[in-house]
C-alpha cells in the first residue's frame, strides 16, 4: 500500500524533468510573463522552452493545467513535451521554426502571402480549435500571437489554457492594460464568461489579423473605446481587398448572442472548402 507521501511525489510524474536536462541556446522572445527560448533537451532534441517569471502563476495550478495540456494531442496543437514545475516554471514544447503567426505576417515570409495560403492557415487553426471544442476545452487567448508557424506554412495553436492561470492583477482585472481586450468576446471581457463560443469570437478577430498581415484590430481605437463600441453593436468593417464572404464569416463569429456563433467544426469545413464552395471565381490581386 503506497504511503500518501509517495503519491504526492508521483503526481510530478514522467513529464517532470530536471532543469539540468535543458540547454537554453537562443532567446526567441520576451513577454510580460516570461521568456521563450530555443534549446535542446538531453543534448539532442530541439525544443522550445517557455520560462515563467516567478509569481506569474502558482506552481500548483500550473501543474493541474499541464495535466490537461498532456491530454490534448492533435496535429494542430503545439505538443507539450515536459515541465519543470518548481519556480521558475519551465514549459517544454515542440519547436516551431518560424515563430509566431503575428511576427510571420508582419515581418516574415507571411507579408507576401495571398488569400489561398491565408485561408489555409485559418483552416488549420480552425481544425485545432475544432479538436479543442470536441474535447470540451477552451483556449481563452486565441490570437495570432499565440499561433506558431513551422515549415510549409504549418500552423499550430500554442498557450491553450494558460490565460486563466495568470496571477497578474492588471491582466486578470480584464480592464487591465495587458488584457487582450480587442480579441475578447464582450461577455468574456465584461462578465468573465469564457466558453468555446468566446473563442469563436476571437477566431473572427484572428481572421482580420490574417487578411491585414498582422494589423492590430480596431485601428485607432483604445481598449475602452472598443469595449463601448462593440457593446453598442459596432463591428470591424470588411478589410481592404478581403472578399465579402470572408467578412460575413467574421460577422457570424461576432454575433452578440454567443449561441448564434458557428462551431469550429463548421468554421473548419467552411474554410477548407472556401475556394470550391464559396469563392470559385477567386483571382489573386496585388494585395490578396
UniProtKB/TrEMBL annotation:
Keywords: ATP-binding, Kinase, Lipoprotein, Magnesium, Metal-binding, Myristate, Nucleotide-binding, Phosphoprotein, SH3 domain, Transferase, Tyrosine-protein kinase. Signal peptide: none annotated. The active site is at residue 141. InterPro entries: Kinase-like_dom_sf, Non-receptor_tyrosine_kinases, Prot_kinase_dom, Protein_kinase_ATP_BS, Ser-Thr/Tyr_kinase_cat_dom, Tyr_kinase_AS, Tyr_kinase_cat_dom. The lineage of its organism: Eukaryota, Metazoa, Chordata, Craniata, Vertebrata. This is non-specific protein-tyrosine kinase. One of its GO terms (molecular function) is ATP binding. SMART domains: TyrKc. Its EC number is 2.7.10.2. The keyword Transferase applies. It catalyses: L-tyrosyl-[protein] + ATP = O-phospho-L-tyrosyl-[protein] + ADP + H(+). It comes from Stegastes partitus (bicolor damselfish). Residues 22-275 form the Protein kinase domain. Mg(2+) binds at residues 146, 159.
Amino acid at each position: 500500500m503506497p504511503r500518501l507521501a509517495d503519491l504526492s511525489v508521483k503526481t510530478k510524474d514522467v513529464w517532470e524533468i530536471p532543469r539540468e536536462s535543458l540547454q537554453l541556446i537562443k532567446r526567441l522572445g520576451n513577454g510580460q510573463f516570461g521568456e521563450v527560448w530555443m534549446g535542446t533537451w538531453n543534448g539532442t532534441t530541439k525544443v522550445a522552452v517557455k520560462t515563467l517569471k516567478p509569481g506569474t502563476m502558482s506552481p500548483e495550478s500550473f501543474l493541474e493545467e499541464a495535466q490537461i495540456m498532456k491530454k490534448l494531442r492533435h496535429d494542430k496543437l503545439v505538443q507539450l513535451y515536459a515541465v519543470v514545475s518548481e519556480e521558475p516554471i519551465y514549459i517544454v514544447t515542440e519547436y516551431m521554426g518560424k515563430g509566431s503567426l503575428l511576427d510571420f505576417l508582419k515581418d516574415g515570409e507571411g507579408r507576401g502571402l495571398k488569400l489561398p495560403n491565408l485561408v489555409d492557415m485559418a483552416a488549420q487553426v480552425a481544425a485545432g480549435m475544432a479538436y479543442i471544442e470536441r474535447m470540451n476545452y477552451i483556449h481563452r487567448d486565441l490570437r495570432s500571437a499565440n499561433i506558431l508557424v513551422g515549415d510549409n506554412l504549418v500552423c499550430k495553436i500554442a498557450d491553450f489554457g494558460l490565460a486563466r492561470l495568470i496571477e497578474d492583477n492588471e491582466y486578470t482585472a480584464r480592464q487591465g492594460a495587458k488584457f487582450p481586450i480587442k480579441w475578447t468576446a464582450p461577455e468574456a471581457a465584461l462578465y468573465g464568461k469564457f466558453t468555446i463560443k468566446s473563442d469563436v469570437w476571437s477566431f473572427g478577430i484572428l481572421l482580420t489579423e490574417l487578411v491585414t498581415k498582422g494589423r492590430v484590430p480596431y485601428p485607432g481605437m483604445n481598449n475602452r473605446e472598443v469595449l463601448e463600441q462593440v457593446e453598442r453593436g459596432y463591428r470591424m468593417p470588411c478589410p481592404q481587398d478581403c472578399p465579402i464572404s470572408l467578412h460575413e464569416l467574421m460577422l457570424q463569429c461576432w454575433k452578440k448572442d454567443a449561441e448564434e456563433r458557428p462551431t469550429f467544426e463548421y468554421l473548419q469545413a467552411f474554410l477548407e472548402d472556401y475556394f470550391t464552395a464559396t469563392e470559385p471565381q477567386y483571382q489573386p490581386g496585388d494585395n490578396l
